[in-house]
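Before going further, it is useful to explain how the protein records used in this thesis are read. An example of such a record is reproduced below.

***
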Amino acid sequence: MHKIKLFCLLLGLSLLVTKSRSQESYFYPNAGKFNPQIPTPEKFLGYPIGEQHTRHESLVAYFKELDKLSERVSVEEIGKTFENRTQIAAIFTSKKNHDRIEEIRKEHLAGQSNGATENVPLVIHLGYNVHGNEPSSSEAAMLTAYYITASENEETLKWLDNMVILMDPVINPDGRDRHSHWANMHKGTPAVADPLDREHNEIWPGGRFNHYWFDLNRDWFLATFPETKNRINFFHKWRPYVQTDHHEMGTNSTFYFDPGEEASNNPLVPNYLYKKIYPKYAEYFTKATDKIGSLYFTKEAYDKLYPGYGSSYINFYGGAGFLFEQASSRGHVQETPTIPITFAFTIRNQLTGSLAIIRASIAEKKSLLQMRKEFFNVSKEQAAKSPIKGYVFGDPNDQTRTNAFLDKLLLHRIDVYDMPNSSNYYVPTNQDNHIMVRTIFENQITYQDSSFYDASVWSLIHAYGLPYSEVKTAMTPGKKITSIPEPIIPSFNKSNYAYLVNNTDYNIHKFIYELERNGVILKTAFRPFSSIVNGAETTFGYGSIIIPVQQQNLSAETLYELVTKASKSSNIKVHAVETGYNSSGVDLGSSYVKTLKKPEALMIIGTGVAASEAGEVWHLLDQRLQMPITKVDMLNIGRADLSRYNTMIIVSGVYSLLDKATIEKIKSWVQNGNTIIAIKGGAEWAIKNGFTKENLQQPDSVKQSLVRQDFDRAIEIEGAKALGGSIFRVDLDTTHPVGFGFTTRKIAVYKNSLTFFQNSKNPYSTVAQYLAEPLIGGYVHPTTMKKLKGSASILVGSEGAGRVVMFADEPNFRGTWYGTNKLFLNALFYGS
C-alpha cells in the first residue's frame, strides 16, 4: 500500500512538473535559467495560467509576493476603486537602481525638455486590462512580471541595470472581477467552445465597465474617476517615455499592434513619433510575433486622435503610446472559423507584445530621447508662432463649475494663474505643456479622414460650459495656482420669514436635495425678482429657490440649522430676508412661485439598455448629489408598483422586452402627473411608442441612399455619415424650467448620435434649438448638418397631467459635461 501511495505521489509530482515545463516552453521558449526562489504564477496561484481567470486580489497578492522575495521589484498602492479594490503599481529595476530610485526619478524628470537623460535609466510603463472583460493582458502581466523578476539571462539583467519598468497590472479591477467571476462560474469540464454557451455571453452590463458602467479607456483625458486620477498622478510622477495599453477585440480577429491609421494621427503631436518611432517599433513586434506564428495586422481600424486612451494620452506629453489588441476567447476557449482560440493563446500574444516593447525600448533609447527633445522643440515653436498667447476663463456665477475645470487643468499639469481683482484664471500658451493646452481649448474642425473610432473633438472648456476668451497679447500672470481655492461662502442670519438662493451654481440641485430629504419644503420662482438683502438690492433669476420659514413642519431654529448645513456642504450662497415684498418682479407669495416635489426617480436598466448612458445618470446622482436612484431591470417593470415614483429615466437602448401592457401602464402613469426623461435612443423609443405627440425627423429617401458606389468604399462612405462625437451650439430658453439657472441662451452640447427631432408644433415646447450655423468643433457629414440646423435639441411634451422631457443629445456625457448636467437635473427636479 505504501509503495502504491508513493508511486501515485511521484506520478502526480511528475505530471505537475511536466505541466509546468509545458507552460514554460509555451510562454517562454528558449528563455534560459530562472531563479528557483521566485514562484511562477502557476505555483503561487495553484493552477496553470490560462486555466482560470485570476481574481484581482490573487493577482495583487502575487505581485506583493514578488516584492517580498526579490530586490528587483517594489509594489506601491496608488489608490482604491469604488468597490474598494486596491490599485497597485509595480516598479522593476536592479537593486542598485532601487537603492537610488527617487534620485533616478528626479534626474529623469529634470532632463525631460532637452532629452538629457542618456545616462539615466530609461523609464517605460506597461498598462493592462482597462476593459474588465478583456482579461488576457492581466494574466500576461503576471507572466511578464515573473520573467523580469526571475530570469537570469544576460538580456534581462541588462534591462534591469538600464531601465525602470513601471507596471499597472489591472487598470480596471472592478470590471475584471465582474468578468472573472462570470467566466469561472460558467466554465465547463471540459470547457465548452460553442460561442452560444453562457460562459461566452455575459449578462448586462458585462465586465467591460467600472463600477458605474463607464469605459475607463476613454477616461485618461476626462479623468472622471478616482481609478483614472490615481493613475494620471502616477503617470506624471514618472513621465515615462513609453506606455502600453493592452486590449482584446472580436474572437474572429487576429492580433493588432501599432502603427495605426495614418490619417487618424493627431495633428498637434510632432510627426517624429508617427514617422520614426512607430515604424521602428513595428519591426520588433513583427519579429517577435512572426517567431511564434501568430497572425496580426497594423495600420488600420485604430486611431491616435483622441487624447483619452491609455495608448494616446502619453503622446501629448512627449512619449510614445502603444496599443495591443488581441482576439478574445471571452472565456476559456471559443470556436472561430478556423480552430478554437484558447485563453492561454490570447495570453501568450499579450506576453509577446510586452517583452517586445521592453526589447525595442532599450534598443531604441536614443530615438526615444530624440523624440522627447523634438516634442518640446516643436511645442515651443508652436507657442511662439501662435497668435493666441493665452486663455482667460471663469464664471463668477458658478464657482463649483469653475473649480471643477481648474481641478482638471491641474491634474493634467497645466500652468494656471489667478487674475488679481477678478474671479477669472489665466492659462498661458507658452508653457511646457503647450500641446495639451491646445488640446483642451481648441476646436478641431478640419481632418484628413471622415471616419472616427471615437470622438472627433474633445475641447474640455466646452464640456464645462464656462465663459472663456482667447488672449492675443501675453499677460503678466498673477499667482500660480497649485491647488483649488477654498470656496468663500458668507454666513447668513437666521430669518423668521424666508431664505433666498440664486440657482446659477452647479451645486444647486445638491443643495435642494439635501434639504428635501430632511423634510424641508422649497419653492421656485418662475419669474425673476429683486429683493433688498442686507440693505442692498439683489437680483434673483428664473428658477431661484425660496425657502419659507413658516410653511414648514420644522421649527425656525431647525430650519436654519438645516439650511446652514446644506449651504456649507454645497458651497451655495444663501440670503435671509424678513419680508415677502420685493423691490421689483414677483413677490414671494406670487402664483408664479411653485412648490417643488422631491424627485423619486426610477431608471430602466438591463439587457438592451446602453450601460454607459445609464451609468452616467447613476454616477451623477450618486456621487455629486448623494441622491439614490432606483435601477429596475426591464423585465421587472411590468410588475413594479410605479406609484412611489414621480420620474422615470429612459436612456438609449432596445426596449423590445417591454410588452404592450407594460407600455400602456407607463403611459397611464405619465398621464397621472409624472415625468419621463428620455435621452437619445430612449427619446426615439418614447416617440415611436406614442408617449408624446412630438415627432422625429424622417430618414433620407430610398432614392437618395441607392446611388451606386464601389464596394470597397462602403466603410469610407457609410462611416463618414456616423457622428462619432462633435460639439454644437444651441439656443436655450432660459425662462423654461429645463433652462433655469443658465445666464446665457447660447450653450454648447455634445452630440454623438443620429437622433433628430422635428421642432414642436407647440411654440413653447422646443426648449433648445440648434443654431442655423451650429458647429463649434468636430466632423459632421453634410447630410447630418442639414438635418441638424435649426432643429430641436430638447423637447418637452405635456401628456395628460404629466410630461415627457426629450434630449436629442447626451447631457451627462462620460460624467464630464458639467455644462449640460444642469439641463438634465432641471428636468429631474422641476419636471413636475
Q: What stands out?
A: The longest strand covers residues 766-777. The chain has five domains: 1-30, 32-379, 386-471, 498-595, 603-699+711-830. The chain has a mean pLDDT of 94. The chain has 25 helices and 30 strands.
